[in-house]
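Example 4.3 (complexes with small molecules)
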Amino acid sequence: MTTEFTTAAGNTGTTGSPVGQDVLVEAVDLRRTWGSGSTAVQAVTGISLRVPAGEVLALMGPSGCGKSTLLGLLGGLDRPDGGTVHVAGRDWQSLRGRAQSTFRRTTCGYVFQNLALLPAATAAENVEVPLLLAGVTRAERRDRVSEMLEQVGMAAQADHLPDQLSGGQQQRIGIARALVHRPTLVLADEPTGSLDSHNAQEITRVLVTAARQQQTTVVLVTHDPRVAAHADRVLHLHSGRLAEMEADGPGAPRAPGAVTLTGDPASAGVGS
Ligand code: ADP
Ligand code: MG
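Answer. The structure with magnesium ion bound is encoded below.
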């Protein structure tokens, strides 16, 4: 069975109209160049994609192919030189200043390899930060933090400082912090990059399980195929372009035409 998706720019060719609720993220012809002149690097060169609500999407590709640049554009941390990104019907480009930071804070959660946990704050206090920013009451903060710590298997370490935790445990705290305010979209950039393979698997499972439980959409950047195997869908990047679409996991949300390649499909190495 297929599901119809309403999109901002896809089927109708119009721009500016809101994205239908089934498509959470829609990027159209994204371009981003770093630097200028002879040293300019075209990190993202015309990428279009849709992420259905509730999907866990993995972005894979060799180092330097533009994964982090693309993730930054999807998550509103960076602005494209061309193209558009809609998240939950809102165009990142149309949001400025306070409206943008509020939308980012309420709609998105971020997990990075370098977590930047507050070193003098306990695990629980680190997880609490997004709730403090959202103005959630003390009682509800306490409940949601302990529920979240439970979910990532860190209830017993609630009062530990980050440097009393292993790398994997710190990542669990990072995941809890990214999900505690129940964002619609979680963006994760190589969250398991510094972990051994066993831990990387385990942490990915924690992230994906917690996200699925709260029906949060995930875009996960990884170079590890075993990590990507936890996703519903894997997109490969190569030199700033999408290369192909890969096998989906069981029960994966299906978006017809979920990937639109721009430019010359042959040179983009479209999988058959
Ligand atoms: P990946 O995450 O796949 O390793 P990136 O998106 O980080 O790739 O980088 C893509 C290209 O853009 C690389 O050539 C990288 O050197 C360049 N790049 C990324 N970020 C910057 C930046 N802030 N300034 C200049 N060049 C950058
Ligand atoms: Mg990167």
